[in-house]
Write a structure and sequence with these properties.
mainly alpha
Length: 399
């Protein structure tokens, strides 16, 4: 358990950093400055430790490519191979290695004893960080009121986070809080009620369209997965009001056509298509959009995958998204949740809801296509869902 948590912490430590941390940090100034510079390399340290564990334990390679994590691994390998031919190969290989880090860590966790407990720990750690980030940016959000703030500054010079990212964290806390309030779980429910109020305000303040759609998805799925309950009658009206106020009144200024503006994405997609044409089979390597499009960002997972790993890698990536949902429906996990006992019921409901949101988010952001918060959450959710089914369904059928 301790090793799993340490490895997962190393993977998260590189968030909101990059090679620029190594270039501009005053490493010798004080221990904090040293840590700020060093944390850009900590996910690479996690990769190194995982590889050493694989070699010394003589473990088999990653699971077959037909599994979701195996398919993501295939996408990663194609992107890393293409990175050798990038105009800035060092930078591309750095981001490719960072992408590899959560895949290897989740695989290592899955091969150890108590793998399901370890995977639960990664998800709970994700939850903790989401709550910490929400609390960290909440004073700034309150200061700005209901005026949308594009960029939020994290404390201790950790980095910056955009409104869409803050909206994603707020939505995750909303999902956790509401599910825990309406599902029999251990712990104090007042704690989740306290968290629900500021997370709803933060989502309202960010005016993040993708997260507001995610709120609608969450409202529908929590009723479907949880079953009807008198407490759920408030889900629809509350979600509808927040979506109307934040998305239509504040973000779109009461004009419906404003909701469908692509905010410059179409221009970036056109430039991305031109970049894809340069290397359509294997792509241009990790971080290609930033390297070759002057810090452009695709804002679409499939365009992002095509730019980085070409047609070959994108087929792996799309296969991974399809494979996890095929796994869910083939094993009827969405129907079996109501019969699950204990805290796993809440965790499974939360996992499927957030997985659905991340799947939708691939259309408007680069979810899962590069090293980022979405990838870490996606990989841990996939690992937990698969292993929960193996431990609770597959083994019971064998018995």
């Amino acid at each position: 358990m301790k090793l799993s948590l340490i490895l997962w912490l190393l993977v998260w430590a590189g968030m909101y950093s990059g090679l620029y941390n190594l270039r501009y940090s005053e490493w010798s100034a004080d221990p904090f400055s040293f840590l700020q510079g060093a944390r850009a390399l900590l996910p690479i340290l996690a990769v190194y430790l995982c590889i050493m564990w694989i070699l010394f334990s003589q473990s088999k390679l990653l699971s077959p490519f037909k599994t979701p994590l195996g398919l993501l691994f295939g996408y990663c390998i194609v992107g890393i191979a293409a990175s050798f031919f990038s105009p800035d190969s060092l930078r591309a290989l750095y981001w490719g290695t960072l992408y590899l880090s959560p895949l290897l860590v989740v695989w290592i966790i899955s091969t150890k004893n108590n793998s399901l407990d370890n995977l639960r720990t990664t998800i709970y750690f994700n939850y903790l960080l989401a709550i910490i980030v929400m609390c960290a940016v909440l004073p700034e959000a309150i200061h700005f009121g209901l005026v949308r703030n594009q960029i939020y500054i994290l404390p201790f010079d950790i980095g910056i986070i955009r409104a869409n990212g803050v909206g994603r964290f707020a939505l995750l806390v909303i999902i956790i809080s509401f599910v825990r309030l309406t599902t029999p779980t251990k712990g104090q429910r007042w704690f989740w009620l306290i968290l629900l109020v500021p997370s709803l305000y933060l989502l309202l303040q960010t005016q993040s369209r993708s997260s507001l759609v995610g709120l609608a998805i969450a409202g529908i799925l929590v009723v479907y997965l949880r079953g009807m309950d008198w407490r759920l009658i408030f889900v629809g009206p509350v979600a509808a009001y927040i979506i109307w106020l934040s998305g239509f009144q504040l973000r779109a200024k009461g004009q419906i056509e404003e909701l469908f503006l692509l905010t410059g994405r179409e221009y970036l997609w056109q430039r991305g298509i031109a970049l894809i044409e340069q290397s359509p089979i294997l792509g241009c390597g990790f971080h290609a959009d930033r390297i070759m499009l002057e810090f452009g960002h695709m804002h679409n997972s499939y365009f992002h995958a095509l730019v980085q790993s070409g047609i070959v890698g994108t087929l792996f990536f799309i296969g991974a998204i399809l494979a996890i949902w095929r796994f869910v429906f083939r094993n009827n996990l969405h129907k079996k949740i109501r019969n699950v006992q204990g805290s796993d019921q809440a965790l499974l409901i939360e996992s499927l809801i957030f997985l659905a949101f991340l799947t939708f988010r691939t259309l408007v952001e680069s979810t899962g296509a590069f090293y980022g918060v979405d990838l870490l959450m996606l990989v841990s959710l996939i690992g937990y869902i698969q292993w929960w089914n193996r431990e609770n369904i597959t083994k019971s059928m064998v018995r």
